[in-house]
Amino acid sequence: MVFVAPRDLTHAIRSFPMLIDGAEVGDGGRRIFARRSPAHDVEVTRYPGATPDDLDRSLAAARRAFDRGPWSRASGAERARVLHRVADLIEQNQEELALLDTLEAGKPIVQARGEIANAADFWRYAAGLARNLHGEAHNTFGPGTACMVMREPIGVVAMITAWNFPFVLVAQKLPFALAAGCTVVLKPSEMTSASTLMLGSLLTQAGLPPGVVNIVVGEGHDVGGTLISDPRVDMVSFTGSTRVGRTVVESSAKTIKKVALELGGKNALIACADCELDLAVDAALHGFLFNAGQCCQASSRILVQDSIAEVFTHCLCEAADAVVHGDPLDERVRFGAIVSQAQLGRIEAYVAEARRDGITAALPGGRAEAAAGNFYHPTVFSPVAPGARISTEEVFGPVVSIIPFRDVPEAITIANSTSYGLSGAIWTADLDKAFEAATQIRAGSVWINAWMDGFPEVPFGGFKESGLGREGGSAAVEEFTEMKSIVVRYGSRRAKWMPGVKDHATPVQAS
Ligand code: NAD
């Protein structure tokens, strides 16, 4: 086991204001959220929590900014200019933003830098889409009739994000909503709000008008709950657990809002006997240890063909044991801390139950006792039955289940047997087999001889209880629009609607 003990951190505590109607809002007697680094157990950041009045002002500002403009009426080119400026500013502040995500989420600094660069790329991609948002036209309804289908911004969007990729999750939503002309009230996770609050000041520097983006801090059930149920909000875009996703749907139903959901996963990586073993093991390793397994895309189920199950398990345990983990500020570290004591407790409970049920831990893992922060060593269970709780529920930690299978049809049945449908993969030398499997895996992303490859150009989202809608891809901006159909009659076809008049318009579809 290669564990780098967290250093004694003496870090100046940084405070971040909220952004409401273009103004910075500091503590002013508000409840203070103080975040301790989960790796070093020292306080690193502070921010004020939104009061009911703050929320009301944020929602009013977003509504006013949408209804009066200018952002909602700006040209695509004008919006693109601002989005490109934001991307420039993110790149200029990469190191500081990365440090904030590392200190608050416990992720390795090398990984956090990559995430900030990736986020800037999302902003640039969205800027390109802002100039290409268009509808369609019809001229095939006979003479004197034309129809245009316009794309209009949907309105005020409430955005709520999770703690595991604080800056990137925002970048997968916000620039696309802005490209469409929407206005936003954004609530990041109360545990990792700093980089999003810092983004607020970058948005102002980039020239985004007041009220277009408002960033508030608070806990889910009160601040998040208020945003979801407020009638001034037209759409909710949520990233988080399936459990909370369900309550988002319920609360938004009262005012019939559009809802986009990016939720949990229990993703299966299928390794066939003819796969390139060392690469498949490496993909499995990356899949279950990336972000300490606190990743919706984690390959938390590895389905391995019987004949290679033993050697695969051996190689994966050996590789997992050799990964450098520990202090996320150390440049060598590849996976860092668990975000909170509560999350650490959840992981321990799942592992304890699996052990009680007699499932063999091929790599025992467990809590890193000597460390100041929240660390958990890689844990590999093998063999695991497909229906066990550890292999069907989202553990959200560096814990993996190896499930043996006989043939590919059985592997696909197992892969599809959970309530989730976020992602999956097959590793094989046989491309016919690979494509066949890819079409049968019920998930929004499927990789062939790869894991977790993603690009802003490629849509991302879940089947089944993993979500609704898609982020990324050329349609990502359209998610934040309404379609409006405008039918024009011209020339002699401008007939009255009268019974008996032969040449009248076909009535609108019966409703
Ligand atoms: P969570 O559902 O507990 O919280 C997510 C966000 O929702 C937070 O900002 C939280 O404050 C807020 N929230 C909590 N209760 C709320 C309520 N009743 N009403 C409104 N908002 C509420 O999830 P988490 O623990 O922060 O994140 C981990 C989960 O997120 C995992 O299940 C993971 O798979 C999922 N996730 C999914 C994706 C994806 O793209 N599919 C990406 C990242 C994380």
Q: In a nutshell, what does this entry contain?
A:
The chain is an alpha/beta fold and 511 residues long. The longest helix is centred in the N-terminal third of the chain and has 22 residues, at 109-130.
User: Which small compounds were modeled alongside the protein?
Assistant: nicotinamide-adenine-dinucleotide
Classify the secondary structure makeup into a structural class: alpha/beta
Distance between the termini: 66 Å
Number of helices: 14
What is the β-strand count?
Answer: 27
Please state how the strands of the largest beta sheet are arranged side by side.
17-20-21-15-14-23-24
Rg over CA atoms, rounded to whole Å, is 25 Å
Describe the protein in words.
This protein is of the alpha/beta class and 511 residues long. It has 14 helices and 27 strands. A hairpin with a 6-residue loop joins strand 5 and strand 6. The chain starts with a strand and ends in a 22-residue tail after the last strand. The model has no long low-confidence stretch (mean pLDDT 95). Bound molecules: nicotinamide-adenine-dinucleotide.
List keywords for this structure.
511 residues; alpha/beta; seven-stranded mixed sheet; six-stranded mixed sheet; 14 helices; 35% helix; binds nicotinamide-adenine-dinucleotide
